[in-house]
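Feature request, filed as a ticket because there's no other form

It would be nice if the structure record came with a short human-readable summary line next to the tokens. Right now we just get the raw output. Example of a typical job, pasted below so the devs can see what we mean:
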Amino acid sequence: MITTSQPLPGLISCVIPVLNESPSLPSLFGEIEAVFAKLPTRTFEIIFVDDGSTDATWETIKSFNQDTVKGIRFRRNFGKAAALQAGFAQARGELVFTLDADLQDDPAEIPAFIAQLETQNLDVISGYKQVRHDPWHKVFPSRVFNGLVSAFTGLKLHDHNCGFKCYRHEVVKNVRLYGELHRFVPVLAAAQGYLVGEKVVQHRARKYGKSKFGWQRFLKGFLDLLQVTFITRYGHRPMHFFGTLAVLIAIVSLLMAFGLVLAYLLLSWAWLPIVLLVGLISSTSSIMPCLLCGLLAELMVTTQPAPANLVQETLRIHDAT
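Raw output as currently delivered:
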């Protein structure tokens, strides 16, 4: 995907997915305004994406100053990746920040992100919650998952899950998100040749509501990791993956067949091992087509345009620039 859109110089876009976080939004909006009041050379816009909230989130978004705020409302809950994709599509800033809406990310760190991006000439900076105010059953699996992502993808980051990130405009316009890929935006960006760094950020305790965390997230995360690894390594040369896999399966099948012949000729009593081997071959023959079909489907999805029917309502920003 190639974009021709041009960012507005000096403008910073803050894209914030929201799901039932109405009580935290006024404080978050005030903190972001306070940050940019100290940055006279920068203007800002906040893009709230209401991902199917059932509380007063949309009414709260509509109550904000329309000169700096845009609200996008989904018809129902489509997930964080879809919310970020919708926000990225509307972002006009030369830099784009993503923050969580639960006040656990501190907007006061935005200037430090900007300084590091410019000093180190990076394209993406991912936040790193070195000290976390979360229960152990959330922190430990997250660290295991982060280690797996770094090992599988080759992009060494301490906290791939952190929602506090900064991107150059061209990055968010050229990365396609769907499913649960919001955790892997730096990985997808690095695969396109963008330079990625990280920054230690303060992690604040949640003040309102409850976490959307659930154990099913890790199963989905592992499947998403396999998907991203396939896309980033073989997305432009899938035959290298499927061809190599086919050759390996053919070699293993031939070896098993040879073993069966020997077992039949030399060990006439060994029917149980033969049955087990036949079962193994049958299982492999059943499982592999499913995996291959899944990977092919993922490859097809990445080339499809984003669905255009997710948004129910949009508040337009008055262009003051």
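Something like this underneath would help us a lot:
The longest strand covers residues 8-18.
The chain has ten helices and eight strands.
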